[in-house]
Structures are given as C-alpha cells and as structure tokens.
Amino acid sequence: MSQFSESDFGANDYSTARPDYPPNFYDFLSRYHSGYNSQLVDVGCGPGTATFQLVKWLPEFSKITGTDLSPPMISKASELATRASKTSQQEDSQGKQIEFHVSSSTDFSFLQGKSCDMITAAECAHWFDFNAFQSAAAETLSAHGTIAIWGYIDSVLERYPDTDALMLDLQYGDDKLGPYWDQPGRDILRGLLQDRHLDPTLYERIQESHVVARELTSAATQDFPLRITKEMPLSRYLAYLKTCSAYHAWKKDPQNRDSPDPCDELIATIQKMHPELKDLNYKVRVLWSSFYKVGTRRA
C-alpha cells in the first residue's frame, strides 16, 4: 500500500483505468441499510472511485466523506470533486455533498465526535488491521448504521480462458510482479478476505459472499450483486494492469531498468495467441473475482 502514497504514483491512471462497481450493488446496499441517511464515510477511498458512485447511487445520504492515507489519492479525489461541482447539472449537489480527508481507517476525528450512518471500504480492507477497523467503525456508526466492505482481484478475459495462467504468472510469478506486492495484504485480498469476518458481537444481519471470476459466465451467479465486469479496448486493459502497486514497485527497482516490461510482454504474448488482438483498440470483456461483507451495528 505504501506505493499509493508516493508522490509519483499515477493516481490519474488509477482513477480512469479501474472498473466501476455495478449499480446493482449500490441498490443492494440501499435496500440493506436500515439506519438514518445523514452521513456516509468511504474509508480508503483512493481517487474517489466508489465515493463518487455512492453520491450518484445513494442520493438519500446528505453528506459523503472520503478518506485515505495517500495524499496523492486525496488530491486527485478533491480535484475530481471540484470539477464535478462546476459541471454538475444537479445544482452542484456533488460539490455540496462530498469532501475528502487524509485519514487512516480507524481515525474518524474529522467527524468531531459525531456519528455517521454508513461506513464503506471498497478495495482497501485487506490493507487494514481488520479488527481494529471494524471496532472503530462500530464506535462511530449510529444505531442500526451499516458497515459495507467489498473488493475485487485477479482479472481474466472472458473470451480467452487460455490466457488465465498467463495472467496469474504476471501477477504472482517470481520473475514478474510476485515479489513486489506488499504482504500480507495481497494474499489476504487474493483469498477474497474469506478469513476475515465481521464480529457478531458488534454487528447483526451479517452477510458475507464472494464469487470467482470465471464463475461469472455461469447462470448460477446472475443474481450476485457485485458482478464486476468491464468492456474496454485492449490498450485500456494494459493501462489497468499498470495501475497495481506491484507494477509501480517493479518500475522503481533499479535492477529492472533494462528489463522488458512484464505487462507489455503479457499483452504481446496474448496477441500472438489471438491475432485479432494485435489491434490495441479491439475490445475485450474483463471479469474480476469479488467479495462483499455487510453488517448492521447493534443498537
């Protein structure tokens, strides 16, 4: 996670290349939530990927605050919020509803002692001290407030299952990006946080679920609310691969200065296997494994 806080980390590329979360999932959150609708805090918000979507899809909340430890990410999120407030056709609602703070996952002091009604953590909880986070969240949430944690990992190309092993080798191969992941966070996420659970003494109505990317092609997963898929040009997928922290660390390692770029090599190999992909504008559908956990603070 430390790479995300470095001043030269590409927060803009991260913001534009990463997938959006599906509207169905926000509808699920809205229906699940049984508390008040005043303040929502999106922890580990990065450049505001989920935060801006929460503003759009959960309009019942009057104020939404994004927090992150990374100053570059918060700077990018604040820039996007300012831009949205100037161009919004909704009476500048985004600019009025949303703000960002540099803050840790357990520090809610910016609320100045007030409670909030929902706390979200998208694609970040694997970096946290999970129990410290859920305890701090329970102390901050109002009665019947909601905690919602979700994330995704390990993309595959829907129409090209013969490339799955190559994808995994890029991410975890000892001669590729494998040694450059911050641990144990990456392994926790790779396991879809199945060994991290919401505490039933703090929360009730707990739901925890996950899906593996290839399962998304099955009719049995059609009702899973967090189906993360995205159609994009192959060039954009290459840009996505280069947004991960391990790639950033690989690039900064002096011993790799004259080494072939592992992401470029992967795409070149895939293009040899499937000639239609030699056109970087060719669109591919990408699927991700994902998980979510939700709970209601006990009154």
Write up this protein:
- The chain has a domain at 2-153 and 182-228 and 290-297: 3-Layer(aba) Sandwich (Rossmann fold).
- The chain is built from 11 helices and 8 strands.
- The chain has helices at residues 11-17, 23-32, 49-57, 71-87, 93-97, 130-140, 164-172, 185-190, 234-241, 245-252, 262-273, and strands at residues 39-43, 63-68, 98-102, 116-122, 141-157, 203-211, 229-233, 283-297.
- Strands 1, 2, 3, 4, 5, 6, 7 and 8 form an 8-stranded mixed beta sheet that branches.
- Helix 6 (130-140) links the parallel strand 4 and strand 5.
- It is globular, with a radius of gyration of 19 Å.
- The model is unreliable at 89-95 (pLDDT under 50).
Give a short summary of the structure.
By secondary structure, the protein is of the alpha/beta class.
Task: Please name the defining characteristics of this protein.
299 residues; alpha/beta; Rossmann fold; 8-stranded mixed sheet; 11 helices; 8 strands; 23% strand; globular
Overall shape: it is: globular
| Beta content | 15-25%
Low-confidence stretches: 89-95
> What is the name of the CATH superfamily of the domain at 2-153 and 182-228 and 290-297?
Vaccinia Virus protein VP39
Helix and strand arrangement:
Blueprint: H1 11-17, H2 23-32, E1 39-43, H3 49-57, E2 63-68, H4 71-87, H5 93-97, E3 98-102, E4 116-122, H6 130-140, E5 141-157, H7 164-172, H8 185-190, E6 203-211, E7 229-233, H9 234-241, H10 245-252, H11 262-273, E8 283-297
Parallel strand pairs: 1-2, 1-4, 2-3, 4-5
Antiparallel strand pairs: 5-8, 6-8, 7-8
Helix pairs in contact: 1-9
